[in-house]
Design goal:
single chain, mainly alpha, 2 strands, elongated
């Protein structure tokens, strides 16, 4: 291992460090995203109780099958209430993209391009194509490919990108919430109408009845 490290050029070492840093950042981001989704799903699972509480307490719901059917209808109605706004946002983004492509008669346009798309607003890097030298890793370094800048020709990407990112994330949360509430619905269906004989003793029950008589 020491021999390998010694044989690496400075460019190789910088590349390895950059790749490790990017990998760590990705892991942290995935962890944070997972934590947020878990918190949202936990909150939304409790929302299922709110949706069916009154019907259960007032005994409008008589059995398990009725409970599941009622809860499913309430769950989907609440999902559409959560999801229609992000769906509108996503549709608006695609309408803008279609109009842009139709006007320019160019259907190969990439709305996330770093030249004329949403990507112009972000730093991007690429691996250099320098294959000279005998280093273990053939790429000398990461090269800055784009610095954030605004350009009028990217107007479609500036609309489409946020619409897809915001609308898509919002919709993903709505779907995750739907699944969380569905899981809770079936858990509740097993406990609310569950009949259990735990702790029940028939002889004691008969004795209590005879004593009372």
């Amino acid at each position: 291992m020491n021999n390998i490290l010694i044989s690496l050029s400075d460019g190789d070492k910088r590349l390895i460090f950059a790749l490790l840093l990017i990998f760590i950042i990705i892991l942290v981001f995935i962890g944070l995203l997972g934590f947020v989704l878990m918190r949202i799903m936990k909150f939304q699972s409790k929302k299922m109780d709110t949706l069916v509480h009154d019907a259960v307490v007032t005994k409008v719901i008589k059995d398990k099958k009725h409970f599941i059917r009622y809860g499913r209808n309430k769950n989907w109605a609440y999902f559409f209430k959560q999801a229609y706004i992000p769906m509108i946002i996503i549709v608006v983004g695609f309408i803008v993209l279609i109009i842009h492509n139709s006007v320019n008669n160019y259907w190969g346009y990439n709305p996330f391009s770093t030249y004329d798309g949403f990507g112009t607003l972000f730093f991007t890097w690429k691996l250099s194509g320098d294959y000279t030298g005998g280093s273990l890793i053939r790429f000398a370094k990461l090269v800055l490919d784009n610095t954030p800048h605004f350009t009028v020709i990217a107007w479609c990407g500036y609309i489409f990108g946020p619409c897809i990112l915001v609308g898509g994330t919002w919709y993903l949360v709505a779907v995750s919430s739907l699944l969380a509430r569905t899981v809770m619905l079936y858990k509740r269906s097993k406990t609310i109408f569950e009949k259990s004989l735990d702790g029940y003793n028939q002889n004691e029950a008969l004795n209590n009845t005879n004593t009372n008589n």
